[in-house]
Specification:
The complex is a heterotetramer of chains A (280), B (322), C (568) and D (412). The two termini of chain A are 34 Å apart. In chain A, helix 4 runs parallel beside helix 7 and helix 6 packs across helix 7. Chain A is globular and about 60 Å long. With 280 residues, chain A is of the alpha/beta class. Chain A has two domains: 189 residues, Rossmann fold; 81 residues, no CATH class. Chain C has 23 helices and four strands. Chain C starts with 7 loop residues before the first helix and ends with a helix. Chain D folds into two domains: 203 residues, Rossmann fold; 144 residues, Rossmann fold (3-Layer(aba) Sandwich). Chain D is 41% helix and 20% strand. Chain D contains 13 helices and 14 strands. In chain D, the strands form three sheets. Chain D has a seven-stranded mixed beta sheet with strand order 7-6-8-9-10-13-14, sandwiched between helices. A five-stranded parallel beta sheet of chain D has the order 2-1-3-4-5, with helices on both faces. In chain D, strands 11-12 form a two-stranded antiparallel sheet. The chains are: A alpha/beta (280), B mainly alpha (322), C mainly alpha (568), D alpha/beta (412). Chains C and D meet through helix 10 of C and helix 1, helix 3 and helix 4 of D. Chain C: InterPro entries: ABC_transp_permease, LivM-like. Chain C: It comes from Nostocoides australiense Ben110. Chain C: Keywords: Cell membrane, Membrane, Transmembrane, Transmembrane helix.
Chain lengths: 280, 322, 568, 412
Amino acid sequence: MTVIDTEVQDGRARPQRGAKVLDAEQVTMRFGGLVAVNKVDFDVHEGEIVGLIGPNGAGKTTFFNCLTGMYKPTSGTVKFYGEVLPPKPRAVVKAGMARTFQNIRLFGNMTALENVMVGRYCRTTSGAITSVLHGPKYRREEAESRSRAQELLDFVGLGKSSELLARNMPYGDQRRLEIARALATDPKLILLDEPTAGMNPLETQQAMDLIFKIRDQGLAVVVIEHDMRFIFQLCDRVLCLVRGEALVWGTPGEVQSDPRVVEAYIGGSELEDDEDEVQA
Amino acid sequence: MEIFLQQLVNGLTLGSLYALIAVGYTVVYGIVQLINFAHGEVFMIGAFGALATYLLLFQGQTALWILPIMIIGAMIASVGTAVLMERVAYRPLRNAPRLAPLITAIGISVFLQEFVRLFFDKVPGTDFPSAKAKIPFPQIDVVTGRAFHPMEGVTIQRAAIFTVAMLLLSAVGLWWFVNKTKLGRGMQAVSQDPDTARLMGINVDRIIVVAFAVGAALAAIAGVAQGLQITNVNFKMGFIAGLKAFTAAVLGGIGNIQGAVVGGLVLGLAEAFITQYTGMLPDPFGQFGGSSWKDVWAFALLIVILVFRPQGLLGAKVVDRA
Amino acid sequence: MNLPTLPDTLREQHSGKGWPLALVGSLLLLVSGLLSWSFDPSILGDISIAFWPASLQLFAMILGAVGVLLALMHRGPLHRLGDWFDTALGLRALGTGSLLFVVFSLVAIASEAGGLVNVNPGGWLALAGALLLTVGARFVPQRQLNSFAKAKANPVLEIVVIVLGMAAILFGAAYVLGRDDPWIFVGFLVMAAVAFMALARAGFFTWMSHVAQRHRHVLTLAAFVVAFLFPFTQDGSDANMSIATQVLIFAATAIGLNIVVGLAGLLDLGYIAFLGSGAYVGAMMSNAASATIGWKPPFIVVMLIGACVAATLGLIIGSPTLRVSGDYLAIVTLAFGEIFRLSMFNLDGNNGPDLTNGPNGIPGIPDLNLFGFDFGKPHTVFGIQLGRFSNYYFILLLLIGFIILVFTRLNNSRIGRGWVAIREDERAAEAMGVNTFGLKLLGFAVGAFLAGLAGTIKAHQDTAASPDQYIFLESAFLLAAVVLGGMGTVAGVLIGATILKLLPEKLRFFSEYRLLLFGLLLVIMMRVRPEGLIASKRRQLEFHEDDEELAQEVQADHLIDAAPEAAR
Amino acid sequence: MPKRSAVSVGATLLVASLALSACGSRGGSDTSSSAAGSGASAGGATKTAKIGVIAPLSGDLAALGLGIQNSVDLAIKQANETNAIPGWKLELAAEDDQATADVGKNAATKLAGDKDVIGVVGTLNSSVALQVQPVLSSANIVQVSPANTGVSLTKGEDAANPARPFKTYFRTCTTDAIQGPFAARFLFESGIKEVATVHDKKAYGQGLVQAFTEEFEKLGGTVVAAETINPDEDKYDAVVSAIKPKSPKALYYGGEYPNAGPLSQQMKSQGLNIPLMGGDGIFDPKFIELAGSTSDGDLATSVGAPTDSTDSGKKFLEEYKAAGYSDPSAAYGGYAYDAANSIINALKTSLANAASVEDARQATVDALGKVSFDGVTGKVAFDEFGDTTTKILTVYKVTGGEWKTEKTDEFK
């Protein structure tokens, strides 16, 4: 695989933290009587990889959805570059935040290239008329979209698969395609929901390399994961959520050594099904 | 006042008919989330089943005891059709893309209409009239004939009383079936959570067939009631009736059996009163009232409910079918 | 057309005998067409004369010729072509198919003339030929094939093939449309299907699709030239042209619907209302005596107004998509369609303002007259008389060309990708920044706009607009054309529209059963081939040979993946 | 084709056919000509002319349509037997219009494309005629309708300034403009001063009710309620409820029997016990079947004297019966028979010296305008608009489950 780049593989040569990209303050989310997320603080800077961990039902995905604008928090604010975004996925993407899905949600009957080109949608503006007339704007944007999409496919290591249907691609490639699609929206911040779910160790390693590579482009990255080892190797800071509350928020070392985290992971999976439902 | 009472009677009669058909939509939807678009045709086949029973066994007679046998004949025809179509057309599509069952349903609907139209008079061993034109429906003593006049200006048709009575009877029967029998409770379980129900050892396929059958049986009763009321049947009678009944089911909250009954009655009454009172409005508006526009208003109501309150009046099992 | 396959050993033992048998069978079939098939000169366009083949004889000769061609490609002078085409499979399909065709022919003769005794030696010879071919083909061994991807392209040859193919379609269409005898008509269809199957099995169409990829513009141009030439083959008769114009209007509307259903994945069961609104605008602004609007602008303006009215309706019907989707949306659109029809029915002055003249519609719409060209008058071009419907055919051809252009260009733009993304996964599309609601509305509006354009012409072509032309069943037919042909494709919709409009017209005995079969067809299609006769490029890729290995790989991967996923 | 089963016959024919094939000449039937007409060989001296029929041969109104088709067929057969037009053989070309305008137009296009078609009998429905007229007119083919009663078909849309829209269109039945008023006078004269009207909004029903209302009000009666129904509907509760409080003494219905029957039944079962009266569209046994036992007393007008009341009418009915058609001649059989005979009469002049059918079409249009003979429904002749000059009408009444003649009169 071409993505493996020995220089960043060790993951220790981390660039300087940049400006604050995302700032969540006291985010609370209630569904009826259930408090899914309770007063959580969170922030991400440019060039930083932040992890989000927690047992099943800890409210990770709910929190994630608050960050990406799918939900409007019951109280508290989420600011992106200092601004509160409207709770509309489209506006959020436009502002520069992109995401992937826990259960891969590609456009199965489109080719890999087309999938990525859909990601360019919000950065292009050709309307129906210029599209039909093949006007200069259409030609320019279409060529730009195409080359950018191919570039991104190359970047994630799928350059040769551009004409394959997404549904026919191997599982690991689908994950990477999803990342390429998210990158196509020109994000400042990318949120990855369990990017290594169902991957074997080799693929996991490749995914980690890819995430470093994205970070090295100056993007901020938020990762939700179950795989502790993966998170601790990858992230600069880690937030551990348990039952909707921020249990620990610090460097991988701090989180790893906190006894409460271990305890939470052993005994805390009561709200199993809630997460799936919220996701759907 | 007489006008009001008369429209109340008309509305309840119409509503009872809608309610009987609407149950079929709601039961099936509650269990498989399928809009059985062909249910209107099941209703139509019920009416023809009753007619065929009459023509075969009792031609020329008018005694009351014939009626239950006609209803049984109607049910055999309707239930048979519904079960067959579930088995042949819908079951193989249970995991198909979402457009497939709906398109199939349209296909079945057209097929059944045409089948009756073309072949009703070709049933071997009979001399049924051709269904290409309207066929007179038999008159039965007691339930057809001279109307009642409880007071000046109000008429109650005998067939109307029959329809409302059949609705009451069916509602009680249905309540008993759903709550008191094993199959009925199985139906409830499947509609709440098919996967768990399957794990608990409930035969989901069988429950689905039962749902189709129950809906068809009530539609058959509706078919007979309609035949007695308007004294003729034709192969097209299922389309609009089916659409209206679907509106009723949505109105009450699709998936909710009480909802279907309430929705049917509400829709029937609404239609009757809209017909009567919009026609009396001063002119620019009055033109859009009366019986010509009642279907338009019914469909407009359907759209408004689907858009703004898809869970209906009584709330329903709403599943995102996106 | 698959008989049980022979055991390999048996096939190897007799492999030498298969080819000559197949060749002789094909030759017999070819020769049989030159002999008399029946005693009775009055049936089936007179097949009683030797050395002057007609109808069924001609069809048998075509099948024989295909057989000879395939056989000679397998071994003999053309054997080098056999490296590319799977002649064995082709011959087998042809064998079974020819047998079917000959049996059909004999049944036709027997039923028309009263008994098999009326079959002449030609017919029996054809049967013998088909039998020999069937048996022989079973023993013909398959050869190692080269992939077309490696084939060296000879552009001139390829273009010639395209032109020949198109010419064949033109002559075939002109011939078959001239047949009124249902036996001959069906016989032709059987023959065409058999030839098509045989060539398809031989890989001919795979090659054609490669060729088409390389010469897309030539293909499009050729298709339009053929369509343009079609009226000239009709010898001044307008009966077929009347059907052809109906097919075009139907297809144009169906392509518009294809945007909504095929691309954006939104089921619309009230689509005929858009065609209807266009037609009503066309009618109300025409010079008809009962037209209800006094303003008579030039037709181009009327077209635009009609299209815009339809597009506005499209926006209204599309607006519930903000909150409603799936089955509920389908029912909402159905209700809108019914409301449209009932409104047109009611707006006659008694119930509401007098706009549409009620159930009687607006009759007596005069013919179009554009730039001094009167569409109602026959015109003579190159010595061939073209009637009223031919005139409309040409303008409709222009219209459908425009509609196809709009469809394909939108499909290949960011908007088209947005639609497909919505169809595939609306939430994911939204999360990728696609303006889902706006695009859905746009889909409805564009589709409705195109249908409205078609409607304004339809009003003049029909000379009337009335509510009973725009019933739910018509919407169902449109949907069926899209589903039958293949969602998201132009060619599929054209084929679907042609099948649904042409067959009932041509097979009058069948018209009574038209709707019955239509319903059955929908059910069977959904069960057997939900993607339609012609799968869209995107869907076709699913079956693409290059992907086959990959698909297996993916499956294997998923087996591995399934384990940890289940464990979670 | 007679059935040949004996092998010996086959063998003889084998020899014959081989001999025939040796000559190798083709009868000319497999040329590229696409018109339906060339199927019949133009052998001998007789040339072929076709008379088309456009009528609903399937669907709700098929009973009426088949009667028309058979009656025309009878007329053609008789003309051929008597060799009415020397040198020409007549053929029937029947097309189904399913009582739908669109289908009717296709049928007309097909007939217009047939070079042998000289005239068409049809249509049943005025709404279909509106679309058939222009198509046949553009090919200059005469059309004689046995049943269209819509006034505008011959007098144009503007009632004040009648102008004939199509020179090729004629009819053997009288129009709504006569039938409606005739009914109005009948009701008024039988002492009914308050009526309700209902129509199905179609050209026929609406025109009928309009003409009825004008005359009835002119006579001094009142129309207490005017309602419409949608012909697709089965239940008329709403309409009956709206009419009942106005307590009319009779209901005049504009439309056809598939709706009129159930309407009569339903209004009576809801306590509105007044006679329903309609035009020729409800004058059919099917009406009584659908209206049930309470239909006694319902009335219908129909054009002309009852077919079985005149000698020529009786003769027609006997011949029709003798010809063994499976469907009855129905309400319009006599008019269709007269329509066909009017065309045949015109052809006697126009085809006499014509080389081909196409050449004779204009002459046929001219000749048809001058036709005058005694038909089974009375005298057949046309005025300057193409309307029949006969204005005899009959009122029928349902008595004991059958239509019985009530009154025959000439409208003045």
